[in-house]
Each structure stands twice: as structure tokens, then as C-alpha cells.
Amino acid sequence: MLEPSATPKLELRNITKWYGPEGTGVLAVDDCSVSVQKGEFVCVVGPSGCGKSTLMTVGAGLEEATHGEILIDGKPAGKPGPRRSVVFQKFALFPSETVAQNIKFGLQMTNVPRDEQERRVQQQLEIMGLTQFRDSYPSQLSGGMQQRVAIARALAMQPEILLMDEPFGALDAQTRTILQEEVQRLSHQMHYTVLFITHSVEEAVYLSDRVIVMSRRPGRIKKEIQLPRDVAWKRGDIEQAAEHPEFIEARREIWALVREEIMAA
After folding, report:
1. Chain segment 138-175, per-residue pLDDT in tens
2. Which UniProt keywords are listed (predicted)?
């Protein structure tokens, strides 16, 4: 378990988001506060339409909150930049660019020196198992491989914070499982600071150190659940993990909370 520091790496403080005029539009998120410590993996789950993706896009700086603030290391986060990288459900790759060129894109936009660009691209190709696809185009890759490229592009920026919005939601079950295990392995080895949005309770329990459950719309924080960090099932594959008593109990508790919100809606 991570010891909480005095200042979270990422803090979403009292976030409220209206779409349309305040008071008469759609209230998507209402007074939500979420913090992520350095090196912590936090998942947000909740019923469909509860505002969890809105919370992530606000946290990434891609949308403005109606009320509240976003802090990094206790200071205003400001506009989107290389400190925060985002991975979406849709791969958002450039179809006319190769795998290597897609990974390199953010590095070019932020004027990283050319030799450093190449070093980081090669590193991510190796980490994500993409070396032999370096010169391939997105249309030549499976959905799972395309998402590996999207993740590699985000990690190549060496962000302080990684925000992931249902990144495996569009993948088939087998590919999703493999990528869950890859992200778990990388997180355990590299200690990334991650805010991860998912509708899968099992995925949240498998990946995260802490799970935040949101209520039905307007989204509010219903409960936070701390999970064990350094136990055997956190380093095994998801099938082994799912048989662990602590995994089963956490999944049961979280699903009961989400189900309650679904039924109430």
C-alpha cells in the first residue's frame, strides 16, 4: 500500500461540470474530489453515463470544469501539456503515418531532440512488443496492436501522469485480457501514476491500488476502496488473480455498489 504524501501528484478538487447553462443544462459531475498519489494506479468505475469520462477529460485539461480545480503537485495544472498523457478508447492514430512516426508525434510537437526521439521510440517499440511493426501502418495492425501503439505514444512522452479512458473497451475479450496483463506488468515495474476509467469491475480490481465508485448521474463519489498492492495476484495473470479470495471479495463489494446505482437509475 502506498503511503499518502502531504501533496497528491494529481488532484481533482470539488469538480462540478455542467453541459449547457448552469442550473438548466445537464449536470454531469457534481462536486467530485479525486486524488492520485505519485506511483499510484487509481481506477474509476460507475454506471454508464455517470460522468466518469467527463471527470477524466477535465482532469486531463481537455475540458473546463464549471467549478473546481485541477492540481499537479499542489499547483494549478494549467493547459494540457507533456506532464499529462491521455489514452482513449479510440486509438486516434494517424493512418498515413507508420507505427514509429505515430509514437514520435508528440515528441516532435514538443521539440524533443532528434536523437532522444529515436531513443524513446525504440524503447517503446521494445516495451510494447512492436519492434517488428516499426514501419507498418495502422491499417495493417489489429485493434490490439493499434492500442499498443497509442499507449506507446503516450508513454514516450515520459509523462508524470497517465490518464486512460476505457482504453480496452473496443477490443475483443482475448486481446483485452492480454493488454490488461501488459499494463499491470508495466505499472508494477515502472510505478506510473495512473487515473484509469473503466466500466469493468474486474478490470478495476485487477489493475488498481484504489477503486473509486461513482454514483449514477449526476456523478458523485460514492465510495473509495483501497486494494492490496503487493500481493501475489497483483503480479499474476488475470485468471489466477480472479481466483484469489481478496480479489473475489473486492469484486463482490464493488459490483454491489455499482449495481445499486444501476438499479436506482
Report:
1. 999 999 999 999 999 999 999 999 999 999 988 888 88
2. ATP-binding, Nucleotide-binding, Transport
